[in-house]
Design goal:
The chain is mostly helical. Helix content is 71%, strand content 0%.
């Protein structure tokens, strides 16, 4: 081979390893792509669907059972059921949504495991390495969990209400057109989605499923009762209405309990809780090691 056999022209495919600008742009990390990634994570886990189905079954099942007991279709342990909602001391709407408290805890656990499962498996390191803007990961998780919980809980709450009123029958039931009923029904659905976001925030803050679920129980169930027992009356009237579950009762009840906030104020307080906890989780996510 002579020197004239060597092609002096540069290769058509450079071997520098650099990508064209269009290729680099196609690999850029954007919020929609992070959301799509979180959606794939959520839908690929069987536990996600089991948890959602459990929450719906609890919400509809418990409400229907409570309505059946009230209507006399189911005998109670101490004797025959019946007597209508008045015998239970609660209104028909609340009776048909009797499963909302437990369903909320289940959805809160869904939010917790959406974060803590990645920490327990070590997958969070790969996630944060792929997405340099860590806040985008938390935002995407919040959007996915919040949207899924809202889409599931609002129709489920409506079904639970309609099923309960059908079981109660004419004369004991109410309709969505009655004062405060529609707000209570749809407000309960929104509150359940909010609890899922609270669970997500607590999971991101504590990074351990057990601690986050325990904190969720304390905030939603234990704190309202325990603080009412130990706090002075003046403190109780000042602090208790601002707890998440108490604030939500202002728009999830047909007639808000005495001493609680107005419906609008209660919704605003719940939003502050969610934004505050998620904001604190975002700050710690940025500062702490994965």
């Amino acid at each position: 081979m002579t020197i004239t056999d060597i092609d002096p022209r540069p290769s058509a495919e450079p071997r520098t390893g650099l990508r064209a600008p269009s290729d680099v742009a196609s690999l850029r990390v954007t919020l929609p792509r992070v959301i799509a990634s979180e959606w794939v994570k959520f839908t690929s886990l069987r536990s996600s669907w089991i948890t959602l189905v459990s929450a719906v079954a609890i919400l509809i099942g418990f409400g229907s059972l409570a309505a059946a007991v009230s209507a006399g279709d189911v005998a109670t342990r101490g004797g025959q059921g019946g007597g209508g909602p008045a015998a239970f001391g609660i209104d028909p709407t609340t009776l048909s949504l009797a499963g909302s408290g437990l369903a909320g805890i289940v959805l809160g656990i869904l939010g917790v495991i959406a974060v803590t499962s990645e920490y327990s498996s070590g997958m969070i390191r790969a996630t944060l390495a792929a997405v340099p803007g860590r806040q985008s990961v938390l935002l995407a998780k919040g959007l996915v969990i919040g949207a899924v919980a809202l889409v599931v809980s609002v129709p489920a709450t409506l079904i639970a209400f309609l099923a309960g009123q059908a079981i109660l029958g004419q004369g004991a039931n109410v309709s969505l057109g009655d004062p405060g009923v529609a707000r209570a029904v749809f407000g309960t659905g929104v509150y359940l989605a909010a609890v899922a976001l609270l669970g997500l925030a607590l999971g991101a803050l504590l990074r351990h499923a057990t601690g986050a679920v325990g904190a969720l129980f304390v905030v939603l169930l234990l704190a309202p009762g325990l603080l009412g027992l130990v706090l002075p009356q003046s403190w109780e009237d000042t602090l208790l209405p601002y707890l998440p579950s108490n604030a939500a009762s202002s728009f999830t009840s047909v007639v808000p309990p005495d001493g609680m906030l107005s419906a609008g104020a209660g919704a605003a307080v719940l939003v502050v809780w969610i934004v505050g906890l998620l904001g604190a989780a975002a700050v710690l996510l940025q500062r702490r090691d994965a």
